[in-house]
Amino acid sequence: MATRIAYAFILLVNSIISWLMLTPWALKKLEHLTLDYVNISCQGKQCYGYVAVQRVNWALGLFHFILAVLLLGVKSSRDGRASLQNGYWGPKVLVWLAFVVLTFFIPETFFQVWGQYIALVGAMLFLLLGLILLVDLAHTWAEFCLEKIENTDSRGWRALLIGSTLGMFTASFAMTILMYIFFAASGCAMNQAAITINLIVLLIITTISVHPTVQEYNPKAGLAQAAMVAVYCTYLTMSAVSMEPDDRHCNPLVRATGTRTASTVLGAIVTMLTIAYTTTRAATQGIALGNNGSHAYSKVGDEEVEHGLVDQQPSSRRQMRAEALRAAVDAGSLPANALDDSDDDDDDSEDGRGGKDDERGGTQYNYSLFHFIFLLATTWVATLLTQNIDFENEAVATVGRTYWASWVKIVSAWICHAIYGWTLLAPVMMPGRFGY
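-> structure tokens emitted (436 positions)
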């Protein structure tokens, strides 16, 4: 956990630095520190840090790309390369900062192409990945609660499932009503269309989730998953209409009284925290990507445990203990994860820093995939900060207050509905591929 938090913190710091690069103050300081070697301009016109943002995020992306390549094939902490993931923080931070410095010696043309094409594609992949994981989380949450209810007949779990479902549906309809009141005035066709389409699709998907045919092929489908998808997609839609520019007088939040600079700063920090959290969660949840975890507990054959005894002479005390644990796991007297602790309680069970190593039996997540997703996150941060932002009217650059960002969120909500709808209809259309 500490390792993942550390990488998320680096992404957060990198994102905040990127945002500061959009301010004239940061650009002047940067030019001063480089003895005027770096002149922040784009084709002769002031670009307000566009290239600087791309440089900073490209440096962190390169850092994660190198780690992803170096950690390919690492299955457990027994592999010497695993220490690159969980240790050497001082050298890794220095390497990251060195990459940031070196990027300012690369011609601007490279980063203009990178930002306009490659980073944009990476950002879209990152968004799609987040939507897939959200749908996977909805199914996982509902199935987990149902399993608890079936196994324990607990009123608490039943109340939690029903209460959370009702709460999320209530929040969805409440946000929809608020959007119609504040963001769907006369002349705001884009907002009216986005809000209405989201509401209609929400009702359609919810109806499909409880349709008898869908229930027949997937008994675990239901309102709990639909509620989570509904509240998330409605949140995306509300975020889109509340962060759009106010040139058509459709966003009263922009005209609201108060300290705009403070709200802009707070909004930027919250956005960066959300990206860091989403990235860390996505990078360590590989189920939706076909990674069912690295722990592969092999079942001992029946011929080997008919009498419940270990009938082979082990070559060492450690192997003797491992054989006994395997037999106990297969007999059902111990959980499968007991095999993770099959080593003797000696120095081999330590992580080298005085703590217990819980990845000797297998890594908890795919290290290379973890860094690849962080690479995609850097492209999303760079794209979010630089896509169609109007800097001339803002002392402090806002994050995501563009029509481009609003449409990305609106379309993301539609795609999320479509992905969830497909998970409902796929077992009906291809029953042979699903084991419900």
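The radius of gyration is 26 Å.
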